[in-house]
Amino acid sequence: MKPTKFDYYAPSSLEEAFGLLEKYGDDAKILAGGQSLMPLMNMRLATPKVLVDINRIPGLDYIREENGQVAIGAMTRHRTVETSALLGASCPLLPAVAKDVAHVQVRNRGTFGGSVTHGDPAAEFPAVLATLGGTIVCTGPGAVREVFSDEFYLGMLTTCLEPDEIVTEVKLPNLVGRKWAHRSIMRTHGDFAIAGIMAALSLDPGGQCRDVHVGMYGVGPLPVRSAEAEAIIEGRQITDELLQEAARAAADEAQPESDLRGTEAYRRKLIRVLLPLCLREAVNQSN
Ligand SMILES: Cc1cc2nc3c(=O)[nH]c(=O)nc-3n(C[C@H](O)[C@H](O)[C@H](O)COP(=O)(O)OP(=O)(O)OC[C@H]3O[C@@H](n4cnc5c(N)ncnc54)[C@H](O)[C@@H]3O)c2cc1C
Description:
By secondary structure, this protein is α+β, with helices and mostly antiparallel strands. The chain has twelve helices and 14 strands. The strands form four sheets. Strands 4-5-10-6-7 form a five-stranded antiparallel β-sheet. Strands 11-12-13-14 form a four-stranded antiparallel β-sheet, sandwiched between helices.
């Protein structure tokens, strides 16, 4: 299929883009890497009358450290995230999961801000945001809002972004001195995860887990932290029994649905298998 007819604009500044979004309202869609939007348009699941291509707006492609956080410009490509030495040193979970995002051709075009805004429940970058907690910078005409990731996502592929706002930056806490890991299962490399687990934690001198974050993705309308698994692990030393208990709790807490990639029961089973593997890998990390 081909997309329905649309008009195309390529503004060269945010102000120009805001003017177009204001003028065309709900008829307009922002085009970033196009790796989610164009397939949806080709299948006519999205039928915008106007595309506002933000690729020519300067100053939206960067990765930097600010006050103990990493700040990533919305137009930073997945491939840049994957290969960033700065992220490798300060938030290595991001380059590690970037390798699992589609194929290199998609990663060359797809943008960090596009993935975060699209918010696919099985996507890696929104899952990192859910696991670590991050801030999405939503810029509109004359105002900038910083929205915590918990409040940004309202439901399946739905965010609190206003029609005249553009995501310009995403901030994440750094992982310096922390342990982390991720595990996921997909049908083939490059496909979305059927289910995945991410974890970040510290070990105190007695070997007890502190500040435990456990994220799950592909198993509900949104990537989420497992409050139950975290409460079970927090302050305790990792043992096989503890991990089994946490895995059962996370699998019960998940809200998976059946689809072509896997049944609800299979996804819960994956959580029970992946969580212990992921947490073991995290605590055994040498840093
Ligand atoms: C074959 C294939 C396999 C894939 N596999 C995976 C995978 O395994 N894991 C994964 O996570 N992703 C996967 N993807 C999706 C890919 O990561 C996309 O790049 C990403 O979901 C969207 O980013 P984009 O820059 O391409 O956004 P676009 O497709 O341009 O836009 C997506 C949506 O976000 C909006 N938007 C984009 N940027 C902004 C912004 N700055 N401000 C406001 N709104 C904005 C658009 O209006 C649109 O609604 C796959 C894609 C393909 C084609």
